[in-house]
């Protein structure tokens, strides 16, 4: 049973929701400078991103989490949109890591 949870802890299917937040956050942990632009490419409004920034002006990890949660709450979050947004901000290293995550249980 323990081994199964290890195998599924990096699971990232095609359609995403809040259950996938921790997998996404682990994958994008190195996204800092590009974070606001990344949020725009995910489809969040500039107003939403600015509100997140105001609520956590010095906490990049909190802003990263809030952007991902806001995106997942839209109901339109997909694996391909995540990869595209990473590529749009030229973080091909992180996009490659996300592409390597399994989509289904092994």
TrEMBL record:
Top-level lineage group: Eukaryota
Return the Pfam families for the record: Death
Death domain sequence ranges: 36-102
Matches recorded under SUPFAM superfamilies: DEATH domain (SSF47986)
Q: Which GO terms describe its biological process?
A: signal transduction
This one is known as Death domain-containing protein
Native species: Amphimedon queenslandica
């Amino acid at each position: 049973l323990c081994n199964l949870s290890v195998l599924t802890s990096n699971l990232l299917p095609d359609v995403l929701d809040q259950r996938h937040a921790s997998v996404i956050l682990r994958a994008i942990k190195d996204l800092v400078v590009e974070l606001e632009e990344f949020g725009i490419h995910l489809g969040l409004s500039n107003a939403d991103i600015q509100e997140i920034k105001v609520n956590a002006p010095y906490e990049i990890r909190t802003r990263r989490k809030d952007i991902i949660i806001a995106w997942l709450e839209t109901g339109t979050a997909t694996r391909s949109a995540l990869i595209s947004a990473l590529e749009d901000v030229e973080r091909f290293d992180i996009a490659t890591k996300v592409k390597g995550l399994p989509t289904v249980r092994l």
